[in-house]
Design goal:
With about 400 residues, the protein is of the alpha+beta class. Helix content is about 35%, strand content about 15%. The chain has helices at about 5-20, 30-45, 80-90, 120-140, 170, 190-205, 230-240, 245-255, 265-275, 300-310, 315-325, 390-405; strands spanning about 50-60, 65, 100-105, 110-115, 145-150, 210-215, 220-225, 355-360, 365-370, 375-385.
Length: about 400
C-alpha cells in the first residue's frame, strides 16, 4: 500500500542517511530487499516522535538499519525478552517449579512451602491437598484437625524495585513472594494461596485451619509435593500476555540458579552475568527488574536485537523455542498484539510479526522478528521515550516495512 509522505519528512529522512549509513568497508553490500527496508525506515523514523532508538539486523547479524541504537532507553515490557532469555539459558524450558508440604513441629501441624511457582493455581493446590490427605491417612492422622503453617521464605521480605512508582505494587506487580496464585495482584499473595490450600484440604475431607507463617525445619520430612508447571509454560504466558508477576518470579529463579541471592540486587547481577555469558554487551544496561515496570531500566536497540537473534542463529536450541513454539505475541492475532496491526498500512502484516510489546507513560516499544520479503528473518527493536502521542501505529507500520508487505 502506498502512503503519502510529506516533503518535510523526506528532507529529514535525507539528512538521516548520512547519520545511519555504515561505512562501505565495514558492512557487506545490502540486498535489494534490505535496501528497500532501509529506505522505508529512513522516512518512517522521524514520525516516531520523542526520543527514539531503532535497529534492524538479519539472522546473520548484518546491519540493515539503525538510529541511536546504542542509546540507553526505558524498555518497558520488552525487558521480558531479556528475562525469558536468561531463564531459558540458566534453567531450561523443562525445569519444573516445586510446591510442597512438609511435617511441622507438632504431629497435627504441616507446613506449606512455596517454591516460587509463577503458574500456581487452585487446581494444583487441590492436587497437593489430595496427596497430603493420602499421606496423613497413611500415618493415622486423617481424623485429626490439622494446622497449616506457611513458609514463603525462599525470598526475602518483599520490597519495590528501584524505579517502581508509587501505586505500581500491587496494581501492576504484586509484592514478590515465593507463594502466590496466578493472576493474584494483592499485597499478600502467599496468605491467599495458603487459604486456598486450607480450603482444598477441607474439601478433601481433612479438617484444617491456617496457623500463620512459620519456617519449616531444615530437615522436615516431606508429606506431599506437586511440580505441575515448567519454565517454558511460564515464559509463554509471560511473553504473550506481558504478565508481570511471572516475570518477577523468573527474575529471582535466575538468581537462585546462578548462586546469587534472590534479592533485587542478586537478580540484577544474575541477569547481567547471564547476558555476558551469551556475549550480549551489558555496558549502559540497567536491569532493575524482570518485568520492565521500572522507569529506571535501560536497554538498547542493539542489546535487544542481539538477544533476539540468538533465537534464530541455529546455535541456541533452548532459545529457539521462543520462535518455534510461538511464545511471542503474533501481530493482529495473539496476546498484546491481538488488537494491533489492523489500522493504517500495517494490516498486511497480520500474522507475520512476532514481537514483544512495551508500554509505560511516555514509552512505547516493540522488539521481535519477522520474515522479510526475501524469506529470511529480520530482527528489530523500536524504542520511543518521552513520546506522549500514540506512536504505536507508526511502530506497526515500521514492522510491516521490515516484513516487506508494505510498499514504500
Amino acid at each position: 500500500m502506498n502512503r503519502l509522505r510529506s516533503a518535510a519528512l523526506a528532507v529529514v529522512a535525507a539528512a538521516l542517511v548520512l547519520a545511519i549509513a555504515p561505512s562501505a568497508t565495514s558492512q557487506p553490500r545490502l540486498s535489494n530487499d534490505d535496501a528497500a527496508i532501509r529506505s522505508a525506515l529512513q522516512i518512517d523514523f522521524p514520525r516516531l516522535g520523542g526520543v527514539a532508538s531503532v535497529r534492524v539486523i538479519d539472522a546473520d547479524g548484518i546491519h540493515v538499519f539503525g538510529v541511536s541504537m546504542d542509546k540507553p532507553m526505558v524498555p518497558a515490557s520488552t525487558m521480558k525478552v531479556i528475562t525469558a532469555t536468561n531463564a531459558l539459558t540458566t534453567l531450561g524450558a523443562d525445569h519444573r517449579f516445586v510446591t510442597k508440604v512438609v511435617e511441622g513441629r507438632q504431629r497435627n501441624e504441616i507446613v506449606l512451602v512455596g517454591g516460587g511457582d509463577p503458574l500456581l493455581d487452585r487446581t494444583t493446590l487441590r492436587r497437593l491437598a489430595t496427596r497430603t490427605k493420602q499421606q496423613l491417612a497413611a500415618t493415622g492422622r486423617s481424623g485429626r484437625t490439622m494446622t497449616v503453617r506457611l513458609d514463603d521464605m525462599l525470598y526475602p521480605t518483599p520490597s519495590d524495585a528501584p524505579g517502581w512508582l508509587s501505586g505500581d505494587s500491587p496494581t501492576y506487580a504484586a509484592p514478590v513472594r515465593a507463594l502466590g496464585l496466578l493472576y493474584d495482584y494483592s499485597w499478600d499473595t502467599a496468605t491467599n494461596a495458603a487459604a486456598a490450600f486450607v480450603d482444598a484440604l477441607n474439601t478433601a475431607g481433612i479438617t484444617a485451619n491456617f496457623g500463620g507463617r512459620r519456617a519449616a525445619s531444615a530437615n522436615a520430612a516431606a508429606v506431599a509435593t506437586v511440580s505441575a508447571h515448567t519454565v517454558g509454560g511460564a515464559i509463554k504466558l509471560m511473553l504473550i500476555y506481558s504478565e508481570n508477576n511471572i516475570a518477577e518470579q523468573l527474575f529471582r529463579h535466575v538468581a537462585l540458579a546462578t548462586g546469587n541471592e534472590p534479592t533485587w540486587q542478586g537478580a540484577r547481577q544474575a541477569a547481567r552475568d547471564t547476558l555476558r555469558s551469551l556475549q550480549i554487551p551489558i555496558r549502559n544496561l540497567q536491569l532493575l527488574d524482570g518485568s520492565g515496570l521500572s522507569m529506571e531500566n535501560r536497554l538498547t536497540a542493539r542489546s535487544l536485537t542481539m538477544t533476539l537473534r540468538l533465537e534464530v542463529d541455529g546455535q541456541h536450541p533452548e532459545l529457539a523455542q521462543i520462535v518455534d513454539r510461538r511464545w511471542l505475541p503474533t501481530s493482529g492475532e495473539t496476546g498484546t498484539l491481538s488488537g494491533r496491526f489492523w489500522a493504517g498500512g500495517s494490516d498486511c502484516a497480520v500474522g507475520r510479526v512476532f514481537a514483544k510489546t512495551g508500554s509505560l507513560a511516555g514509552v512505547q516499544t516493540l522488539a521481535g522478528l519477522t520474515r522479510g520479503a526475501d524469506g529470511s528473518w529480520k530482527i528489530f527493536a523500536v524504542l520511543t521515550n518521552d513520546s506522549y502521542g500514540d506512536s504505536r501505529p507508526v511502530i506497526d507500520e515500521m514492522a510491516a516495512e521490515i516484513n516487506g508487505c508494505l510498499a514504500a
